[in-house]
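Hi support team,

I submitted a single chain yesterday and got back a structure, but I'm not sure I'm reading the token output correctly. Could someone confirm the output below corresponds to the sequence I sent? I've pasted both exactly as they appear in my results page.

Thanks,
R.
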Amino acid sequence: MSIANTTYAEETTNDMIEEKIDKLHDEKIKLLLNEELSDREIATAFKEIDNKLELLGVEFLSSEEVMEQFGISEVHLMNEPGFTTMVAVPKQDNVT
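Hi R., thanks for writing in. Yes, this is the structure output for that exact sequence:
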């Protein structure tokens, strides 16, 4: 097998893997939009999809790892323009 054929095969394989990853992410979006599923059903399906993603080489980062990798701190996030804390204030007096 020549170098050109090997490179083409690797690119094709990478494209196929990326396509599978994209489809799995699309599945997650569909789950979130499905109002008929319970939170437990969605969480179970997400775990299954995440397992498939890991088998395809996807690595998941914790919140701390994301902030560290991108040089973000929680204080920094709160000082960003457009960052707001939203609170829904009840309009009725009898709500506690």
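A quick pointer for reading it: The chain has a mean pLDDT of 80. Let us know if anything else looks off.

Best,
Support desk
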